[in-house]
Amino acid sequence: MSVFKPVLTEHIHQKDCHTLSFYKSVGGYSALEKVLKMNPADVIQEVKDSNLRGRGGAGFPAGVKWGFIPKDTNKPKYLINNADESEPGTFKDRLLMNKAPHQMLEGMIIAAYAIGCQTSFIYIRGEFYKEFKMLEMAVAEAYDGNILGQNILGSDYNLDVVIHRGAGAYICGEETGLIESLEGKRGWPRIKPPFPAIEGYLQSPTIVNNVETLSCVPHIITRGASWFKSIGPEKGPGPRLFCISGRVNNPGVFEESMGISLKDLIFDRAGGIPDGKKLKAVFPGGSSSAILTSEEALDVNMDFDELTEKKTMLGSAGVIVMDETVDMVQACLNIARFYAHESCGQCTPCREGTAWLVKMLTRLVNGGGTPKDIDMIFEITDNIGGLIDFSKGSFGKTICPFGEAVAWPVRSFVEKFKDEFLAYLPQEKVVA
Amino acid sequence: MSSNGSSNEKFIFENTEKVKRILSQYPDKKSATLPLLHLAQSENLYISGAVINTVADLVDCHPAVVMDCVSFYTMLYTKPQGRHIIQVCQTLSCSLNGADALVDHVTDKYGIKPGETTEDGRFTLMKVECLGSCGTAPVVQINKKYHEGLSQKLIDELLETHQ
Amino acid sequence: MPLLKIDDKEFQVESGTTVLETAESNGIEIPHYCYHPALEVVGSCRMCLVQVEGMGKLQASCNTFVGDVHPDRKVEGKYDMVVHTKNDLVVQERKNILEFLLLNHPLDCPVCDQAGECYLQDYSFKFGNAHSRFDEDKRVRPKEYLGSQIVINQNRCILCSRCVRFTQEISGTSELFVEARGYNSKIAVLEDKPLDNLLAGNVADICPVGALLSTDYIHKNRIWNMEKKPSVCQNCSVGCNVDVFSQKNQIFRLTARENQDVNGYFMCDIGRYGFHRFEEIERVSQPMVRNGKSFDMLDWEEAIQKTADLIGKSKDKTAGIVSPFHTNESNYLLGLMMKDTLGFLPPITGDEITYPAGFRISADRSPNLRGMNDVCGELEEDFFPIIKTRDICGLYVLDDGVDRELDNRWKDILAKMDFVIVQGYAMTELAKSAHILLPGLAPFEREGTITNDQGRIQWLRPSLAKKGNSKSDWEILMLVRNALDKESEHFAGLGEVIKKMSKQFSSYSEISLFKIGSQGMALNGKNT
Predict the structure, then answer these.
(1) Could you read off the pLDDT of A69-120 as tens digits, one per residue?
(2) C108-136 pLDDT per residue, tens
(3) Which positions 47-106 of B are in contact with C (Cβ < 8 Å)?
(4) In terms of DSSP bridges, do strands C59-60 and C49-52 run parallel, antiparallel, or are they unpaired?
(5) Residues of chain C with CATH 3.10.20.740
């Protein structure tokens, strides 16, 4: 098995790898120096050419997003670094913030430069207090080192970074929910249009990018778009941090090339399943993705498009492994409860539907279920988040993708492990 | 009715320098709401009615709007909590790695169910959702710090050090 | 201008109009809850979802904007957007959303005030399922008082957030907020800052279900028992348009009636609950003449004759007191009778209050000061010198009906008069000191025109029947005038008074009740 040479996590095991002096000693901020002499439009083009797709969950091409910023407005532009990592199964941004904060910061400054931003924000989830302190330190170092503030590295470019802590809401990871929270309100996602790139934070053009996405940017600048595009599948390339947790021997973050097989991830990198148990089901992309059965999981590569074809998604690449000891119904309830807890409550299907699912699943688990309930779960999930058949178009009914995020996994549990659900029905009620 | 409004009682921030710094960082005052609430909670231990009034004054809005914000987030407490808030993650990866048993263990040992506080005000136990460290499950956050890869023995030792 | 097709109808619309706006203004029903034309669009109820050709997801029509598209992308070569509001997909979707809304909604219709005017009821009937598939326990919460005038029945709330947006955007007072999140969300107020601003009553109007209710009206009646009559509020010079709901000659409530040139969609609580005042006053409904310290009843002929005699004998030494609380026609006829010897009582004022979105409560708490000045020729600001110089010995007063404490100067004048004739409906202090009482109509019984402070003339329409032996104020004045001068006109109806009035004042030259209609008319075509 060829070992992938890490790009983003190359230095994370070195002493003091989080400091500015270390980062500079390994070539850090040379990409920024290069960018400050470039035309912002060229920077955007380079990132576009690299086919870098968002690593937060949506997988939207970063360069294309940056290109949406209107050129003909006097409104200030804002760049927001989305460090609100809350997707179950995902813990890679935390690693990057702890061990390579300057890499992320450099990516942020380059992105801010490209879109003409003067004040940028890092929205970090409230629970990540240690990481917040780490970022505070890194930002202070950057200001001291003329990498932030006025006339960065002797250029005309000025940038301020404000670190903003969240306070415990998964929905603030959704870009418009984040913007609302940043504006000091409850994190209720906004309807689109208008899109954040046109009217975002304080009604001004705003770009929201994930920590890992931004961390890729300095490397794209230094080594070129074609280099980046050559790593893994061309339509969704690059080094990727895969998180594996659940029932595995070596859970953790593994940096691999996009397109690595899920089988390798689980059985090679993560050391397989403890106690010789068999694989049963896998979440490929955080809990918002549809689960794969072991058969499906062993036959797929971690690629945006390939997983979409299999009616699930790469999302945040948070792989959660479930083995034969895991009760699928309990797991389904666990996930449904997570979404009910995190639902912002703004729109009808999600607010009422998630709670209904939890109540129904709880009743089922406690022995009070009926065969009709199993069918109802399909209906309810469809009514919140639509069918997972992308050929028919995504039929979500909610303001934000939270509806799809709860519908797809819950539905997939019932679809693929119906027997386990039926087994919870009081036996006399099951029609032979 | 929400009972956190205390007429015109005001909360006095200790770290006035930080308050000024926070307010100056944002292009719009209202964005300073969350950071000011975090600061207030670190000084006052919970968001009282007086805190809400003060923050509302500082960001130039009605206290009800601040309360709207406060009640949305799980990390902002509108009632006093125990000295040490034990937050056990209950989402899938942690649940698959023994989180539920950990919760029961703490309940047995200290007599508090999730949501409750010990009589001496030492511990509050809470079940929370994904803390973003699934690789080191099960994870518990006590006050500001993460404690990862816990077991019943380890959590016993850990809680001993939290008086 | 983009061409929009909704179902089988085509519309040419302004670029940037939404599908829902187009549907609403063309009588196409797209059910909705959270959308309100005066409030910011949030698209949260998801009830207005429609299918737009070319878009995979169903779109919220309240936030779907129509614009010109590139000719290559026009549907069927000509439409910029094609929308389906009645196909299977949309029909099914409405059922689903209604199902979600009804999950925790109690079956309260038999005891809920909103029944009969409830969007949830109406849409369930039209678009919903007949049966519920919910087998779980419903979320139950106690009802709460959000302020002295508004109670919230938490179980019925569908979290459309109209009320919250109202207090943020329209009244600017922000008392209401959403507490908690997800399934536990609910509308709340801070305990020490309840919903008690002067626009509070509107939240009960805009609540689409029976969650927010007016404590004044609660459990008093049913919408299908009441008659709804349009009129104009008479509590200040803004002249908000209202609908008056009454049954068997008793008013139960007022709600705002839309008029984009006056009050938008709302009204204030002063006007909303002001009708109660008339339930408690001592009413004058029979012509009366003073006899020592009390009054003797008269019939109308006698009363009119006595009045005319008194005025006639005074030989032009009678003055008229017009009133900004009376209609243009009443003030006008008194003006004709008293020929430039007119004054008026001290004005009733209060605070001038303007709300962020533009709604206003005027400091002038009379409905027709502008009209009174317009149709009475030269009104003397300071009336007292006139009384001296013209040697006035008698007054004919159109009583405001507002019981007020008159200052000493007025009290002296009244004491010095040989006679005071009061035309009014209430036994005010002034009425008590009259020599002859002519019973006119109370504000909700009157018909006529009034002019607001922006120069808009509006049609005041009666909501209640005349009480006792009262007559219309213009009719009384006409009869007195006829008795004084046999040559004066006999008007067959209000319309004829208006016609004569319109001929005399150029700014009123175009008016007629027909033209004024339900939305009023700007004098001189300008709203100044």
Answers:
(1) 999 999 999 999 999 999 999 999 999 999 999 999 999 999 999 999 999 9
(2) 999 999 999 999 999 999 999 888 899 89
(3) 49, 52, 61-65, 67-68, 71-72
(4) antiparallel
(5) 3-86
- What residues does each domain of chain A span? 20-229, 239-321, 328-429
- Over the stretch A341-395, which tens digit does the pLDDT of each residue have? 999 999 999 999 999 999 999 999 999 999 999 999 999 998 898 765 555 545 6
Distance, in Å, from the CA atom of A325 to the CA atom of A279, rounded to the nearest integer, reads 9
Q: Do B2 and C174 touch (CB under 8 A)?
A: no
What pLDDT digit, counting tens, does each position of A146-192 carry? 999 999 999 999 999 999 999 999 999 999 999 999 999 999 999 99
| pLDDT score, position C387 | 85
The CATH fold assigned to C3-86 is Ubiquitin-like (UB roll) (3.10.20)
Record the pTM.
0.94
Summarised one tens digit per residue, pLDDT across range C428-470 is 989 998 999 999 999 999 999 999 999 999 999 999 999 999 9
- Whether the CB of B4 is below 8 Å from some CB of chain C: the reply is yes
- The whole-number pLDDT of residue A385 equals 85
Q: Flag whether pLDDT at C293 surpasses 90.
A: no
Interface pTM (ipTM) of the complex?
A: 0.95
Which residues of chain A have a CB within 8 Å of the CB of C93? 397
- What mean pLDDT value characterizes chain C? 93
Whose structure tokens read 């009632």? B79
Determine the residue among A174, A352, A363 to mutate to test chain C binding: the one whose Cβ has the most chain C Cβ atoms within 10 Å.
A352
- Return the HEC string of C215-270: CCCCCCCCHHHCEEEEEECCCCCCCCEEEEEEECCEEEEEEECCECCCCECCCCHH
pLDDT digits (tens, 9 = 90+) for B94-133: 999 999 999 999 999 999 999 999 999 999 999 999 999 9
Alpha-carbon B112 to chain mean position: 17
- Helices B63-70, B49-59: axis angle to 10 degrees equals 110
What would the CATH number be for the domain defined by A20-229? 3.40.50.11540
Bridge partners (DSSP) listed for residue A153: none
The residues facing C145 across adjacent strands are: C151
C286-310 exposure pattern, b = at least 16 Cβ within 10 A, e = fewer: bbbbbeeeebeebebeebbebbbeb
Asked if the Cβ–Cβ distance from C101 to A399 is below 8 Å, we say: no
Assign domain A328-429 to a CATH class.
mainly alpha
Tell me which fold the domain C282-525 belongs to: Rossmann fold (3.40.50)
Please state, as a whole number, how many other Cβ atoms lie within 10 Å of the Cβ of residue C251. 18
Strand segments, DSSP code E, in C85-208 are 144-145, 150-152, 177-179, 186-188
User: Looking at C63-128, which runs of residues are DSSP E strands?
Assistant: 81-84
| Rounded-to-integer distance, Cα A364 and Cα C328, Å | 73
Q: Which residues, in sequence order, are CB contacts of A48 under 8 Å at separation 6+?
A: A61, A63, A64, A66, A67
Going along chain B from its start, the domains and CATH numbers come out as: 1-80 (1.10.10.1590), 84-160 (3.40.30.10)
Q: Which of C350, C404, C351, C347 is nearest to C372 (CA)?
A: C347
User: Measured between CA atoms, how close is A395 to chain C, in angstroms?
Assistant: 5
Q: Give the three-class secondary structure for A322.
A: strand
In this model, does residue C73 exceed pLDDT 70? yes
Residue A423's φ and ψ, nearest 5 degrees, are -65, -20
B162 touches B84 (CB < 8 A): yes
Query: Which one is the CATH code of A239-321: 3.40.630.30, 3.10.450.50, 3.40.50.2300, 3.10.20.600?
Result: 3.10.20.600
**In whole angstroms, what separates CA A128 from the centre of its chain?**
16
Assign A430 a pLDDT band (cuts: 50, 70, 90): low
